[in-house]
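Researcher: I'm preparing a figure for a lab meeting and need a structural model of a single chain. I don't have an experimental structure, so a prediction will have to do for now. The sequence is pasted below. Please return the structure as tokens so I can convert it later.
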Amino acid sequence: MTEVLHLQSRAYPVHHSSPPLTVESFHVPGHGELRANAGELGTLGYNPDFTIELDLKEIVTRAIALPGTEIVDCHARILSAGSILVTYALRHEADLRRLALADLDALDARVNHALREADAPILAAVLAAAVAGGLVQGLALRPDLAGSGGDTPVDRQSARYNCHFVTESPPWETDPRLPPLSPGPFCKVLLPYTYAWDRDPATALHELRTMLEPTDIATAQQSLLVGALLGGRRVLVDLARAEYPTTDVHAFRRFLDGVWSDYHHLDGYRIESAQGPRATYLAARESIGLDNTQERADKLLGYVGNSLLAAASQRTEALDTRLNRVASALAMVTAASFSLDVAVFLLPDVSLAPRIGVVSSLIGLAAVGIAAVFLPVRRMLRASSGIAGVRSVRSVRAVRVPGQRPAGPAAVRPAPEPDGSGLAGGPSPLP
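Model: Understood. Here is the structure written out token by token.
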């Protein structure tokens, strides 16, 4: 093993009302008992922000083995702002200090992919057990996740991670494509989501997790916004494809309330943290483009809100139209019934045949009236759609390119002259 400690921190957006700590342990089916401890973010200089700490090393190492890599630690932190951080500490047989930055990044990506595929069922079981045991409460799920019936509210598409290489005097240089950044002490931004820390890799793990908090907070904010973007995009797909959208507007609004509440809770880190961690946090959010993601989320979710209002207005208009048709039909039936009562009253001694004729005439008039209520609307809709189509086609045909002659019989070009004046690119023999 080498003198480089490789750390990976994943952020899962899970909107909840925890902590504080409510239970000290809970049972994870197939994995035994898991103990929970109370903690807090150690880089805050002002108001404390509490966490719930879970040691997952024993559960993970029993099920996952990576060739050439030792899993030193696996730890989960449930933040009060609706995010869960899962941090791996790894040691590699290969000497990471000899790798170029591109090779280092490729190694980190391979390891992360292998871990995400291997620990997905484990993390899902842990979170489901935490919810069932009351450790995580008040979940506000994205509507499409809530309706899928899955065992866990974790959406792997929304998760984001960053990686850290802890070693003394890190040899890697910052990627020249990054803008000039000024992180706090001991930190060097190598790539977006990739950092080198000038610390002894034998430092206690809880101190290293505290050291990583500024970058992990920025990554957690990014995961919240990515989840909101995915949810908004799926609502737009539903609105675009379905005649009557099935999206629960109120559930989506509650989900977005949780997103923005948790995002701005974490955004308070810039004024609650100490000076050094604050500088690292600001550098991290600039390198990953967090402000740009927030702007995109604002625009998309604003468009989604307008589309939902338009869809609700369209459904209300369609319902009003149906109710008006029903009311008109009932009025016709009522008028026919009243006319029948008048006819029976005025013709009490008439034979059966005239009575049948009168009744049949009234029923026919009522049927014609009801048909007159419903059929013209459909014909008008069809005619309007047909007229719109014809107009669109005519408008396309009527478009003329400036300088273009009106369509007419094709003129026959004479054969080229021997001197080449009729060749392409030369003067045209036509007027």
